[in-house]
From TrEMBL:
Keyword tags: Methyltransferase, Transferase
SUPFAM superfamilies reported in the protein's UniProt record: S-adenosyl-L-methionine-dependent methyltransferases
GO MF terms held by the record: methyltransferase activity
Any one biological process term the GO annotation gives: methylation
UniProt-listed Pfam families: rRNA_methylase
Entries under InterPro entries matching the protein: MnmM_MeTrfase, SAM-dependent_MTases_sf
Keyword Ion transport tagged: no
Name of the protein this chain belongs to: Methyltransferase domain-containing protein
Superkingdom field: Bacteria
Ranges in coiled-coil conformation: none
């Protein structure tokens, strides 16, 4: 038998597939080149909605072109805005939010997600999550800001009240290349009895 453990992005997608279906409402907090945005548009179907954010105009244009080429434009709203501002644009409850942190693939690596704004955006997503909803964060600790984000997000997720949220992480323990780490948070359907 030949298999591998795959990646944080694969794990995040597997979890989101379980949490979101036709008609779902989701946030792509880091649209990048639009691959995740397009995948989410397919997942939610024609009656669903995807809200996607990026601060770089190039990301917005690449995503817009990708969605148009795939006939998915009507399923998404794209915002050239930092994900920490998502509450300005998203008011309805959401089924899931996906973060793929780091920098825009194929661009200069000078613009990265930032710990402070990522924490604000993650908090905003938790406030919007429906019961049973899911937040996934793929964190890339192979650069200084990514290592900072991972440390802060680990502490943030660990401190979430267990009566309201389940928080987990999936990571490789023995890799030296600092592969991405998945942090996932699920809003519980109902409170656990103490």
């Amino acid at each position: 038998m030949n298999f591998d453990f795959k990646s944080a992005r694969h794990w995040a997608q597997a979890l989101i597939r379980e949490a979101v279906g036709e008609g779902g409402v989701v946030v792509d907090a880091t649209m990048g080149n639009g691959y995740d945005t397009a995948w989410l548009c397919e997942l939610v179907g024609p009656s669903g909605r995807v809200y996607a954010f990026d601060i770089q105009p190039a990301a917005l244009e690449r995503t817009r072109a990708r969605l148009a080429a795939q006939g998915l434009s009507s399923r998404a709203e794209l915002f050239c805005a930092g994900h920490e501002r998502l509450r300005e644009f998203v008011h309805a409850p959401i089924d899931a939010a996906l973060f793929n942190l780091g920098w825009l693939p194929g661009a200069e690596k000078v613009v990265t997600t930032r710990t402070e704004t990522t924490l604000l955006a993650a908090e905003a997503c938790l406030a919007l999550l429906r019961p049973g909803g899911l937040l996934t964060l793929c964190v890339y600790p192979g650069h200084a800001e990514g290592a900072r984000e991972l440390s802060a997000l680990d502490a943030w997720a660990a401190a979430l009240p267990s009566q309201e949220f389940d928080a987990m992480t999936q990571r490789f323990l023995n890799q030296t290349a600092a592969p991405p780490v998945l942090i996932a948070v699920k809003k519980q359907l109902r409170r656990n009895n103490p």
